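An instance as discussed:

___
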Amino acid sequence: MENFEAFRLQQGRKAVWGNQPRYDAGTGAGSRGGNVIGRTRSGKPIYQNHGHPEHNNFNAPEHTEAANKHKAIAKDLREVGHQMSTSFGTAAFHDAHEALHRRSAKTRFQASLKKNKK
């Protein structure tokens, strides 16, 4: 449960990651809706939903980092037995979005190989 130390339940069924900043107001990532679940090594926000427009700018390694973040959250949710819907979704939700990021990483990687062969 190493990634789950900061997890805590607040306001009944609402789950919040204590080590992630909350963007309730302002102009930063997540301030206009969308749940930021982490950041890539390059500092780009990783949103809960794979389909977020900010993910269009991700390269293959960044999609892999996002997939790993979803995998860690799903694992942590399972370890504490949370199959209910939380502010970060269910474990199954994160499994699905992990798969989508892995597919995007593979597609971006293959595209970069084709581009480098030219």
Q: What stands out?
A: Confidence is low (pLDDT under 50) at residues 1-26. Residues 2-117 form one domain. The chain has two helices and four strands. The two ends are 46 Å apart (CA to CA).
